[in-house]
Structure formats: C-alpha cells, structure tokens
C-alpha cells in the first residue's frame, strides 16, 4: 500500500520546477498511484483520461508496426510527464505508452491539466518547454538508431534509464531491451557481452548492474549528452520567465 508520507509530488522534476504558488495550487489534484511493469497507459489512437508525472516508474513511448515489431521513440521518467498530446492540439498519438519500469507516479485528471494550460502563465510555459525537450529526445533517438552502433545505443539507453532511477541495478531482459531499441536480441547479447567483459556492467537473469558509470559514459555516443543538456537547459531557463 502506498504511503503518501514517503512520496511527494516534487520528486518529479517537472513538478518541482514549478513556482511555489502554482505547485501548491496543483498539489491537491495530484493522486499517487503505483504503475506495474507492463501496464498499458495508452494505446495508439487512444485518449488519456489522466496525465502522469512519474517519480520512480519509467514509461516507454513506442510505436508498433503492422508486423508486430516495435521500437521505443522516447522514455518518460521523473524528469517529465505523459500526456503532451492533450495540449499540443493532437488529442491522440499513434504511439503506445507502456510501463517499462514498475514504480510510482502522480496523476492528474486531463481536464484539470487542460484548464491549467489554457489559463497561461508558468504552467503553460513549463509544459511547452518540456514538450520541446521531449521532441529533442525523440529526434535524437531516431538519429542514434540510424547512425550509431548497437553498443552505443545500449549505452545511451542504459544511461537515460539510470538517470531516472535511484539505483545502479535495472530489472530488464535482453529481449525487452532489443524490443525497445528495435534491434535483434543477438545484437544486444553481443553488445552487453562486450560491456561485461570490460567490467562496465554485470548481467544475470534479467538483472543489469552498472559497475562503472564513467566507463559507460566513455562508450556512449553524443546523443545522450544532447538530450541531457536540453532537459537541463529548459528547466533552468524556465525560472527566468
């Protein structure tokens, strides 16, 4: 059972970036929920009844092709929210939203979120900046998947996941990672094997432990840094307006 005493909405960085007055106004509308691994929060073409602000859960935004193959286009963790389609004018999206890492999240009714957005002010500015950062992540993921090696893609994915967790251990099978990156499982096995031989990670039965984060950073492509710096820049600058 969830204990609100050990959870606070400002554990989500997007909510924490709000000015105090706006945060306190939204706080009564935020409901703490647990998101189990594999839970589908939104299907392609579906409408969200709530927006989600993860604290320890990670949500995967991915596209499923007609032949059943899928690939992740972005992830949402404690840095952001699920539900930008509501205020970007599209209402629905062609992607799916599935819980990649089980954990906790705050949610708010979509109607309340839209009311806040349409009133303008700090909430609207912050959400638009987050949307820009998320678009950067989606764009950089497409570039990375096209131009960089599977090992570099795996390092990028691992680092982005670690940034959203308070642990150096991930519960994740190679099959699921392969599905996220849209590559063959054999490619992930080979890439993970190289990282394990280098003493950077340890992999056993669906558990990945990062032993050397600096080593992981040394192997990653520039895509990780581009996404990380864009999120930091947009959250830092929001207080200026």
Based on the model shown, name its key terms.
DNA-binding transcription factor activity; 9 helices; 10 strands; four-stranded antiparallel β-sheet; single chain; transcription regulation; DNA-binding; 2 domains; alpha+beta; Jelly Rolls; cNMP-bd_dom; Arc Repressor Mutant, subunit A; 241 residues
CATH topology of the largest domain: Jelly Rolls
Number of domains: 2
User: Which H/E pattern describes the elements?
Assistant: HHEEEEEEEHHHEHHEEHH
Q: Bin the helical content.
A: 40-55%
Strand order of the largest sheet: 2-6-4-5
Can you give the mean pLDDT? 88
Global outline: globular
* CATH level-two architecture of the largest domain: Sandwich
Count of strand segments: 10
Q: State which percent range the strand residues make up.
A: 15-25%
Main beta-sheet strand count, sense and barrel state: 4 strands, antiparallel
SS-derived structural category? alpha+beta
CATH homology group of the largest domain = Jelly Rolls
Count of alpha and pi helical runs: 9
> What is the rounded Rg?
18 Å
Ends apart, CA distance between termini: 40 Å
Low-pLDDT residue spans = none
Provide structural commentary.
The strands form 3 sheets. The protein has a 4-stranded antiparallel sheet. A 3-stranded antiparallel sheet has the order 1-7-3. A hairpin with a 5-residue loop joins strand 4 and strand 5. Helix 4 packs antiparallel against helix 9. The chain is of the alpha+beta class and 241 residues long. It contains 9 helices and 10 strands. The model has no long low-confidence stretch (mean pLDDT 88). It folds into 2 domains: 117 residues, Jelly Rolls; 72 residues, Orthogonal Bundle (Arc Repressor Mutant, subunit A), CATH 1.10.10. The relative contact order is 0.14. The protein starts with 12 loop residues before the first helix and ends with a helix.
């Amino acid at each position: 059972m969830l204990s609100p005493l050990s959870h606070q909405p400002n554990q989500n960085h997007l909510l924490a970036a709000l000015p105090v007055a706006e945060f306190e106004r939204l706080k009564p509308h935020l409901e703490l929920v647990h998101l189990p691994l594999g839970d589908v929060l939104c299907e392609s073409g579906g409408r969200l009844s709530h927006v989600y602000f993860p604290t320890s859960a990670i949500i995967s935004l991915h596209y499923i092709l007609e032949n059943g193959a899928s690939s992740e286009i972005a992830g949402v963790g404690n840095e952001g929210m699920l539900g930008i389609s509501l205020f970007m004018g599209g209402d629905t999206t062609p992607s799916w939203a599935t819980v990649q890492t089980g954990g906790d999240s705050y949610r708010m009714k979509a109607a309340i979120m839209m009311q806040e957005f349409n009133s303008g002010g700090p909430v609207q500015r912050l959400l638009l900046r987050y949307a820009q950062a998320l678009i950067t992540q989606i764009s950089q993921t497409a570039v990375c998947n096209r131009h960089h090696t599977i090992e570099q893609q795996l390092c990028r994915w691992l680092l982005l996941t670690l940034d959203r967790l308070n642990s150096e251990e991930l519960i994740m099978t190679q099959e699921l990672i392969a599905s996220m990156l849209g590559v063959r499982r054999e490619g992930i096995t080979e890439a993970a094997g190289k990282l394990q031989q280098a003493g950077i990670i340890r992999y056993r039965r669906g558990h990945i432990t990062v032993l050397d984060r600096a080593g992981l950073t040394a192997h990653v492509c520039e895509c990780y840094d581009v996404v990380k710096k864009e999120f930091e820049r947009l959250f830092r600058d929001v207080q200026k307006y």
